[in-house]
Amino acid sequence: MTKFLRVAPLMLVALLLALSPAFAQDFAPTSYAAENCDYGGLMQSIEALDELTVRFTLCAPDPSFPAKVAFSSLGIYPSEYLESTGGGGEALFRNPVGTGPYRLETWDQGNQIVLTRHDQYWGEPAKEQTVVIRWVSESAARLVELQAGTADGIDNVGTDDIANVAANPDLALYPRAGFNIMYLGMNVDLGAFANINVRQAVAHGVDKQRIVDNFYPEGSIAADLFIPPNSMDAGYTPEVEPFPFDQARAQELLDAAAAEGVELPISVNLYFRDVVRGYLPNVSRVAQDMAEQLNSIGGGAYFNVTPQVVESTQFLDEALAGQYELYLLGWTGDWPDATNFFDTHFGPTNEQFGTPIPEVTERLAAAGQLSDPAARNELYAEVNTILRDEAPMLPIAHGASAVAFRAPISGAHASPLGNEQFAVMEDPDDDTLVWIQNGEPGGLYCADESDGESLRVCEQITESLMAYEIGGSLVINGLAESFVANEDATEYTFTLRSGVVFHDGSALDANDVVTTYAVQWDQANPLHVGRTGTYEYWGYMFQAFLNAPE
Amino acid sequence: MATTNTVAKLKVDPAATRREGSSLWADAFRNVLRSTNARIGLFLIFCLLLIALLAPVLAPYPPNTSMLSIDGYTGTGRLPGKPPCIHLFGCPTDQPQHLMGLDLNARDNFSRILYGARVSLFIGLASVTLAIGVGTLLGLVSGYFGGWVDTVIMRLMDVLLAFPSLLLAIAIATFLGRGLDKALLAIAIVSIPAYARLARASVLSVRENDYVTAERALGAGDWRILFGHIFPNAITPLIVQGTLSIGTAVLDAAALSFLGVGSQPPDAEWGFMLAEARNSVFAQPYLVFYPGLAIMLTVLAFNLLGDGMRDALDPKLNRF
Amino acid sequence: MLQFILRRLIFSIPVLIGILIVTFLLARLIPGDPCRAMYGERATEELCDAFLAREGLDQPIWNQFGLYAGRVLSGDFGESIRFQRPVSDILAERLPTTVELTLAAVTFAAVVGIPLGIVSAYRRNSPLDFGTMLFANVGVSMPVFWLGLMLAYIFAVALGNTPFALPPSGRLPAGLTPTPFYVEWGWAESEQAASGLLIFLGRLYGLNAMLTGDPNLFFQSLRHLLLPAIAVGTIPMAIIARMTRSSVLETLGQDYVRTARAKGVRELFVVLNHAVRNALLPVVTIIGLNFGLLISGAVLTETIFSLSGIGRTLVEGITARDYTLVQGFTLFIAIAFVIINMLTDVLYGYLDPRIRQGS
User: Fold this and answer.
1) Which residues of chain C lie closer than 8 angstroms to A320, CB-CB?
2) Which of A19, A148, B175, B287 is the most buried (most CB within 10 A)?
3) Contact residues, chain C, for B316 at CB < 8 Å
4) Nearest to C140 among B259, B281, B303 (CB)
5) pTM as predicted
């Protein structure tokens, strides 16, 4: 294995110079580079060109790079602060510092987080002086707090409460379109499901609309394709029509399968885990209804499906290893690009639906390197058609969720990515906004966090180079006021806003960007510590770490 | 739960368990019936048994059939979680009657409550029987043979008793996986020590009795003495304790289901029904109220009977 | 007496060793690993291998046990996998809620249960007695979580717009961040800088409110404790009522009470002075013996009322396969359980010499 040059010696000197106070005035640009791309990652080098310009060079074309650098795991930290905290531990993850409209005031572990307005914020200042974030795992209890006025906004209104909230003039409901997919996985290698007729019969035999109407919050839609509609510039190709719900057709297909040797009725477990996600808010109800629907085809002559709940970790182990014939699972998009949906499920190494389909993997690999949405969509339309016909899974629903606020709160909104921005919300009654979400963050150094509860809090405190529009998924400028990419999408140059001040009073410059990225990228960096040290999002976005142990 | 520990620790006065043979059973039963509590308890248990046996006749719908799947169903509005419709109380007669509403899968809640009696009674009786069986055997062996056998068994029981029983049951149930049978096993395991201690105490109180010594002198084997002479002495407190623990077992099973380590869907188990509806307690309180009420009545029935039995059969136990 | 205590101490050593082994096994036998629990759908094999290696979970189980036992004996509970913080810190942070909850529950149980028991005994076989005992019987038969949900429904929703409304979740109202007494007194700069014991004391909000003279904090923390305390306290309340009743009945039959009555001492005075005083002693011990019941109640109640106490944290830890946290917390609870049982035995032995000699 090739050894990599971690930091060119000259650059190291430059880094030290930049950190020493005597030279703080004179900007000494730093950079970080892999010797070459053999280490398997996407990132090749990060260079500060001058105080406000930073250039990324990639190992392969990546049109989704701007969407990735907008993600909150890449929120920019002051390099001095990362140094002084050692890049991890409680010193860092309980005391985040960023450039965002709010800074962390206190984190009363187990109880609440209090944020205070950052007075030197570069943009529009936050409307409220204080934001209080609390957590209650039960949706019913969250709603009671909202109704009692002890909360101004709550996350994830319960499915059964949505109608009541909508009818209540004191409350305002904000549906959150589902940037996700819930699917019924079918393993193309196992048992009866190895027969394509059986899989297609399931696709015809499940009434998705009945499931969405009865067990999903309003605003959810029955899924036609694996990709949610209207969320990304490529991937959703409405011209590929799904199989219609048609139990008679399902019976025909099953009879055909029986003629090919499949034994009827097909006895099978429908596996699921008892974990609530945006794509599956009422998992046990959906599983029970799905089983009942399949069992009712032809009066029970074809299927004998038993819902089977499996403990979450075991479920994921077994489902992702391709051990289940039939299971319910889903995916929530991280950043708005089709690769985040397709490649994570139908890539060449994924066996959760059995042997990957080569016609699909080839097209995905090709589409991932194109920047032109129209050209990508040509390939994605083919992928969607193959996925429908081969039916390794049946897309069921894009689950919406909803947030609710007290009616007087202005600027209230819901974001499909779950990153509601409190800075634009105003409570006319007092100068505190109280938000109740599902759970407590694990830590607030989000380079090393992965759950939405942590990320949302980070998104108030830190900012990334790019950002997502408020209440949407469009990528807009963040700390960078502009960027240029080369033609084949392998080189991106960002220009930072000037006059941006961190919560600790230091000014943002290009070296902060380099350090923020470098400590995540390089496992040998002394600051590569974090909370768990996993930096999982870096792995998802850029495939590999520098100096990973062999 | 810990009440059983209490009973085992404090209340067992070995002298009280010294009873002769089983000729007194009829007397004992008459004594039990003299207590109002026991009569109420027995009546409730009788009703529960009847409901459990006749559930298919009494229930208007099968417990696991969604109204969404019934062709030509004429209910109005959104079906899952639909409030009770009782014709007697003014619900329009053109609408199908659902005494306790529809659950969140649009199944008839009343039918599920009725079928739930089967599950709860089964769990209560089976787990206690299992625990009594294993616990008594361990206790008898431990008390009769003494020495290192006694030390090992009783220290093991002490270790089990050092954990709050629900926590231990959660851990065991998580280890075993989801399912009623596994929850049943977990509950049985955590209640073994109480019976082991009880049985051991009974043995200790009679081991050196003249008739045991006499039997031994006559050449009777250990096991014959143990089961022929010592075991009958231990029966009464075990039965009293067992009856009292059925309620606890039903409660524990419900708690396990509630925490998501017990029943599997679509089991019509009360604790699980409660857990499934827990998030809609403010919107559909009837889905939470009835299963809880059913659990309470069942537990109450066994507690009342157990109390009555304790009063009648084992007055010395009646301290607390 | 001393000998009795010593004997109990030596007696508990094998139990403590057993507890050590069982806590380790309990955590490890549960299928699934913490990596999957933490990263869910996104857990890849490489990610998990690296994660397990870092936590030392790729080593043979015997090495892990050796490491664990060695650490525990030196008083170190290790670092939580999920929180990446010392388990002892998390314990110091979460224990106060459970302590306050159980204390409030016991107070409720005693304050309601003892008078009920006395009245019941004093008016034996009256409708009042019958009603009280029925109430007690119903009390022990209710599922704690059902009672909690129903209380939340009644006091937060049905009575939501009345002065009787009570909060259904949380330990304190939003935005109320109490200054710990040690910060106010200048003993430490902030909570993060304070020692575990100070954190523990400062988070007993009732105590903190008294030390810092903050009536609002005291009132608010009490208001938030009320519903969960009733939920946890109902079963012990019923037990205490029944026990008080039978022990008052027993004392009322004693010679010296009859003598006092015969001497013309006023009836009520007799009951309160003699009967109740003697009857209270076993009540104290029953509270100790019901520690497990309180913990079980706390697990369920903390879940319903969104309280970050040790019960809920532990159950979440089991779900998250946070081995170190589960081991640390169960070990702590088990040891506390053993100690409380021992104290209760000692107390009981002190009150009732027969037991001391008998054992």
Assistant:
1) 41, 43
2) B287
3) none
4) B303
5) 0.84
